[in-house]
Amino acid sequence: MKPYIRKVQYYETDMMGIAHHANYIHWMEEARIDFMDQLGYSYAQMEGHGIFSPVRSLACDYKHPCTFNDTIAIMVSVEAFNGARLVLRYEIKKDEKLICEARSEHAFMDEKGQILRLKRAVPELSQKIELLCEHNESKNE
């Protein structure tokens, strides 16, 4: 998977000229949508099939600040997946320097709010996520 690349915009900074911490969450969402596009199954496709993926939890560990016009790279990887729950890990870097580590946990639900098992609902997407999860596990061994 390729990292998601973006520039920090002026409006995303605070009075000290530093990117406001809340923007990192928006950037993670942008990277997550790009991640799904790279998997070959977009969020729009998923929602078009009546499947939604709400955020259950989110955690960010801010290491270093970034400022206006910095180019950042956001790498998304699969930390855990059981078919109904997906945990993604994010590494946000500026010039190869780690500026933030984060993770988000997601559920899969239908239009009625019922939890779905992705393996049954969208087997091809489930398989792609499982392969990424296995790849990450083997890489960490």
Walkthrough of the structure:
With 141 residues, the chain is of the alpha+beta class. The protein has a single domain, classed as Hotdog Thioesterase (Thiol Ester Dehydrase, Chain A, Roll). Helices cover 33% and strands 31% of the residues. The chain contains 4 helices and 5 strands, in the order βααββββαα. The protein has helices spanning 22-39, 43-48, 118-121, 123-140, and strands spanning 4-7, 55-62, 71-81, 85-94, 97-107. A 5-stranded antiparallel β-sheet has the order 1-3-4-5-2. β4 and β5 (97-107) form a beta hairpin. The mean pLDDT is 93.
Query: In the CATH hierarchy, what is the architecture at level 2?
Result: Roll
Find the CATH superfamily: Hotdog Thioesterase
Query: What's the arrangement of strands in the largest beta sheet?
Result: 1-3-4-5-2
The level of helicity is 25-40%
* Poorly predicted runs of 5 or more residues: none
What portion of residues belong to β-strands? 25-35%
Order of helices and strands: EHHEEEEHH
The strand count comes to: 5
SS-based structural class? alpha+beta
Q: Give the biggest beta sheet.
A: 5 strands, antiparallel
Rg, nearest Å: 16 Å
Global outline: globular
Distance between the termini: 19 Å
Characteristic terms for this protein:
141 residues, single chain, 33% helix, 31% strand, 5 strands, Thiol Ester Dehydrase, Chain A, globular, 5-stranded antiparallel β-sheet, alpha+beta
